[in-house]
Amino acid sequence: MALVNQLIEEELILEEANRLALNVNDNEVAKEMEAIKKEYTGDSFESTILNKYGSMDKWKEEIKKKLLLKKVIDEVITPRTAVKEDEARRYYKEHIADYKREEQVRARMIVVKTEEDANNIRERLKQGEDFAKLAEEVSLGPEGKKGGDLGFFGKGEMPKEFEDVVFSLPIGKISNVIKTAYGYHIFRVEEKRGAKDLKFSEVKDQIINKLKREKGDAGFQAWMMELKQRAKIEVKEELL
User: For 57-71, how does the pLDDT look when each residue is reduced to its tens digit (9 = 90+)?
Assistant: First the structure.
């Protein structure tokens, strides 16, 4: 019945498009098609579209329908999602316990396969070689491409072996070689942030976006209920 409900809702929204005199023009469809094409490489695009939709024309029709559905929802629901600053501030005060930042560390890491390699790299670092450049050159981890930068993280977000080292390591110091299931690691701490209560200004946008999503969901459900109550819907289960 979930699919049936989805089809009913789509039809009701398309009827609202007619009532509101909303439409999607060819330029809007073409722009969306081009954006989707960029996500594919080689010949995979056309074959994927044909396998899923049967023809390019049917795919184009589906895009036009989806854009129209979105346009109607934006027209009707977006005005219902406005969030004033005092509303966001009130939410912040009522949920202030949710806006605490724990102690955080920003560190770089180099990881290699063998202890011998790790010891050699640590000696190079002690001789003054740049940690970030060396990480790009030898580290096996995906963060190696970013100079080994792990970004900021708090306790509980990384393997315990990592945390035990970096949270006790002074800023700018090179760690000993650490063995884990992932290989042999060397760390350097770049920055540290103490635990703190986040100010409203720091989380304002986050709160507003959250409230907008909640209002949008509630608004859509209420609007859809209105449409269904106005419409005469008959589902012939024997045809399902």
Answer: 899 999 999 999 999
